[in-house]
């Protein structure tokens, strides 16, 4: 069924889409995006005032975060009966205009209510996963979901390769813990109050032994037994390491994450092995053997406690992110 959006509600609908798009995940919950309505289009800009110059000097995580918002908007638009036609980097790589999205009447999703519920339910749950294994078929299905958005996604299924990825992650965490400027920048986004950053309530408890806890006070020791857990690992990336590639990886991440949420799984992005040069180099040349450029790792698992009990991370008001 084709759904026509009345002209009188066009602005209201577009504002609603921006609000839903802003439910997307972002590095340290910085929400580094700015939106503008222009005729039939919604324009997405990088908000460089919310950048992480020490941890993310090239802006990879910033742009990747904006890519997740683009995909969230696509999902929301279809749930409302709109066709979102997206052009990434319409002005080239050197500009902050990341996406131009033209909205037209289209076919409504067959599950609109469920789609919007999943957008609202998706969250970053940093609590330790259970030992229940994530089947290889589930990991491959999640990777395929990401690949459908022009993102390269490879599940790590081989035990020895997985062990190498674990060690790379731990080494990156240990290396970052000695970087005073980076750890200070990270801490600035924890417990800020207001509409952004990471509330302390959603972080692992102090003294947690989970090696997944980037925000823990101390890195965990390199314990080989971590490979016995049931957590899944997927490497996301693309053919190059530029803004349009990061946007596509962001869209793939969002698609993967929403599918995982529907299935009752939790996703934890791991950008640290990419941020630290030594681990990024080994990940690209040894783990994926130069088949593509890694942009992000994600860990996937099951939680013993429902995510409904987890406090929600805040979001900036639409009036703050939607510019005239």
UniProtKB/TrEMBL annotation:
Name by which UniProt lists this protein: NAD(P)H nitroreductase
